[in-house]
């Protein structure tokens, strides 16, 4: 049936003619690509609706985040919190922690309606809650994480479980730890997730006892709260959970409030009250990146609480296994018999192009990066727009930025002529041209594994969502690379590609005017070519201040001296987990070369099309049916 087991409304139970699979393992939840085939615009639709709702009312982000919390803590992440009362059960909205408190239901219903219009009966309300929570955090400047998908919606709700399982605002530390432990969380998870109170508001009825009766509270803070929350009456009056000036920003200031004895709820302040969690609170005060990283990990963990699994998730898992094995079908000698001249032909054209313009080496390398990070290394970035293809060339990270397409065309023509027929895929051309560009500028050589086929489609939405942006924080960069199967070392190593090439003023303006972790003289130099107002947003600056036309390790030396051109570059020297590698590569070029080659091979193995999947394009800019 088209509707499957997803409810047509998130609030009303509809009986559909299909089987309900309950109790399957959480490992069967799948990454954010779960809806790519059945509803490819699902995630971008949710994101747009969340951004609009938060734009109208900043507090809505906290409300949507809280809905996901209160859903997962009762029977697991199954959207039971959304169900209205029926003759058979009383919904969870009436529970003491939820009554006159939970909100955002209208936003969820709007999202569900929009998704039902474009792909009826596909996206569950439980998945909507999980994605909306993530997008709400991002909308207020917080970290991004990959939301596992494939949940189905519960047929029932439990008022009793909601009253018993949701942690109350008056709990002491021991009881809070127990409440989270009962759901499989560590103490570290609990403290990190409590950081969600850096946004949102609380009702007077939930903090009145604290501000009038407790002693571990700043007196002036208590007095200001008493003006909002009188000793009697005004139970629904609201106060911000984060008392700083950043109540609408997802940051670490909540923990600073705790250190200053300005936690609004009793359950907040017990996290810093001469107890076992004091040190973790202080760590988050001192290291905001650590908080964002731990919060993202804990949110992924929370989203996996007892989900109901879709049968399509099992199908997806089988497909994923097939996809993973595709990389093993690639081989450095793939064209040894069908076109032995292929690699030498590509190298000749690349060397000539780089000799004409050294910058072209960086451009060809970047094409391969931006191809692989969007649905795998399949040549999709090369496709021009058509009536059915929304070209990735128009994505925000690519528009007026990616280049080298003419060189790829030249390579394709030369290779097909050398082979006598179209044997070599455009995806393989990108992979080999990236390697040959690095070598042409003095960098390392590696064996490129070959045998990829070309995609017959492209995705502008995925390009906008999956490519790492120049304004990303270190936690966002780590999450982004992790989503593509790349670890923190790969992130640092592959970022070294910025030892060649240029960046547009548009991409580094915020860094040179607003960031503090930048060399003042260096910032002043860049401001000369990139004024705060006016000027040419396309004016270029070299990403490597000393040797932009030579592939070396000077990029890391720039970071050590706070001369990273992009915010995302300098962030690599702003984290305990990546600082060491940056410093190592700044003086160990040989180590950088060796690791860069390994990570390029790893990146080139991201979801290749092999066997009978995809095609060998006759023209790299068009799928064969349009040629």
User: How many E-type strands?
Assistant: 6
Name the structural class. Answer: mainly alpha
Count of helical regions: 27
Helix content: 40-55%
* Major beta sheet, strand line-up: 1-4
| Mean of residue pLDDT values | 88
Distance between the termini: 38 Å
Which range does the strand content fall in? Answer: under 5%
Low-confidence stretches: 1-7, 14-27, 314-324
Number of domains: 4
**CATH fold-level name of the largest domain:** Peroxidase, domain 1
Q: Radius of gyration, rounded?
A: 27 Å
CATH class of the largest domain: Mainly Alpha
CATH architecture of the largest domain: Orthogonal Bundle
Q: Report the principal-axis shape.
A: globular
User: Describe the biggest sheet?
Assistant: 2 strands, antiparallel
Describe the structure in your own words.
It is found in: Secreted. GO terms for molecular function: heme binding; lactoperoxidase activity; metal ion binding. Ca(2+) 1 binds at residues 371, 374, 376, 378, 380, 392. Helix content is 47%, strand content 3%. It has 627 residues and is an all-alpha fold. It has 4 domains: 41-162, Peroxidase, domain 1; 167-292, Peroxidase, domain 2; 334-462, Peroxidase, domain 1 (Orthogonal Bundle); 468-594, Orthogonal Bundle (Peroxidase, domain 2). The longest helix is centred in the middle third of the chain and has 16 residues, at 311-326.
Topology at a glance:
Layout lengths: L41 H15 L2 H14 L32 H14 L6 H15 L11 E2 L6 H7 L7 H9 L5 H8 L6 E3 H10 L5 H10 L9 E3 L12 H7 L6 H4 L8 H9 L1 H15 L5 E2 L1 H16 L15 H15 L2 H14 L32 H15 L6 H15 L19 H7 L7 H10 L4 H8 L6 E3 H10 L5 H10 L10 E3 L11 H7 L6 H4 L5 H12 L1 H16 L23
Helix pairs in contact: 1-3, 1-4, 2-4, 7-13, 8-9, 10-12, 12-13, 13-20, 15-17, 15-18, 16-18, 21-26, 22-23, 24-26, 26-27
Family: Belongs to the peroxidase family. Ascorbate peroxidase subfamily.
GO cellular component, one term: extracellular region
Protein name: peroxidase
């Amino acid at each position: 049936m088209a509707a499957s087991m997803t409810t047509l409304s998130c609030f009303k139970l509809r009986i559909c003619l299909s089987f309900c699979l309950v109790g399957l393992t959480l490992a069967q939840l799948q990454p954010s690509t779960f809806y790519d085939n059945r509803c490819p615009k699902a995630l971008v639709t949710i994101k747009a609706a969340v951004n609009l709702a938060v734009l109208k009312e900043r507090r809505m982000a906290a409300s949507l985040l809280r809905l996901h919390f209160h859903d997962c803590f009762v029977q697991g992440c199954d959207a039971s919190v959304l169900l209205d009362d029926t003759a058979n059960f009383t919904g969870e909205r009436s529970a003491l922690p939820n009554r006159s408190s939970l909100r955002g239901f209208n936003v969820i219903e709007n999202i569900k309606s929009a998704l039902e219009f474009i792909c009826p009966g596909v996206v569950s309300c439980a998945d909507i809650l999980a994605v909306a929570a993530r997008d709400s955090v991002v909308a207020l400047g917080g970290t991004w994480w990959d939301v596992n998908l494939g949940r189905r919606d519960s047929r029932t709700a439990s008022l009793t479980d909601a009253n018993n399982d949701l942690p109350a605002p008056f709990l002491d530390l021991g009881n809070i730890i127990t409440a989270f432990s009962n759901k499989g969380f560590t103490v570290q998870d609990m403290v990190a997730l409590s950081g969600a109170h850096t946004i949102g508001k609380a009702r007077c009825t939930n903090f009145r006892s604290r501000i009038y009766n407790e002693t571990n509270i700043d007196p002036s803070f208590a007095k200001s709260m008493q003006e909002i929350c009188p000793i009697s009456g005004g139970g629904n009056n609201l106060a911000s959970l984060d008392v700083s000036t950043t109540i609408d920003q997802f940051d670490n200031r909540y923990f600073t409030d705790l250190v200053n004895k300005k936690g609004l709820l009793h359950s907040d302040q017990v996290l810093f009250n001469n107890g076992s969690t004091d040190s973790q609170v202080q760590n988050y005060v001192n290291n905001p990146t650590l908080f964002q990283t731990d919060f993202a990990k804990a949110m992924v963990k929370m989203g996996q609480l007892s989900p109901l699994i879709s049968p399509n998730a099992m199908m997806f898992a089988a497909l994923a296994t097939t996809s993973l094995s595709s990389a093993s079908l690639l081989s450095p000698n793939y064209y040894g018999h069908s076109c032995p001249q292929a690699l030498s032909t590509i190298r000749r054209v690349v060397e000539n192009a780089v000799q004409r313009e050294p910058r072209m080496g960086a451009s060809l390398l970047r094409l391969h990066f931006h191809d692989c990070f969007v649905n795998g290394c399949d040549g999709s970035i090369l496709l021009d727009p058509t009536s059915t293809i929304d070209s990735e060339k128009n994505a925000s990270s690519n528009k007026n930025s990616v280049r080298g397409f003419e060189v790829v065309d030249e390579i394709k023509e030369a290779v097909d002529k050398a082979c006598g027929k179209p044997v070599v895929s455009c995806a393989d051309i990108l992979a080999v041209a990236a390697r040959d560009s690095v070598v042409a500028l003095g960098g390392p050589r590696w064996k490129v594994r070959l045998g990829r086929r070309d995609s017959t489609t492209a995705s502008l939405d995925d390009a906008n969502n999956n490519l790492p942006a120049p304004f990303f924080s270190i936690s966002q960069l780590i999450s982004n690379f992790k989503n593509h199967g790349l670890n923190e070392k790969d992130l640092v190593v592959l970022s070294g590609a910025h030892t060649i090439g240029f960046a547009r003023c548009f991409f580094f303006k915020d860094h040179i005017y607003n960031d503090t972790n930048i060399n003042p003289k260096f910032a002043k130099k860049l401001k000369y070519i990139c004024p705060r107002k006016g000027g040419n947003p396309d004016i270029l600056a070299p990403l490597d201040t000393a040797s932009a036309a030579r592939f070396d390790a000077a990029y890391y030396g720039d970071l050590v001296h706070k001369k990273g051109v992009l915010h995302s570059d300098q962030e690599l020297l702003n984290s305990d987990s990546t600082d060491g590698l940056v410093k190592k590569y700044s003086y160990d070029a040989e180590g950088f070369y060796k690791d860069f080659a390994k990570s390029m091979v790893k990146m080139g193995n991201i979801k290749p099309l092999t066997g009978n999947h995809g095609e060998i394009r006759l023209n790299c800019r068009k799928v064969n049916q349009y040629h």
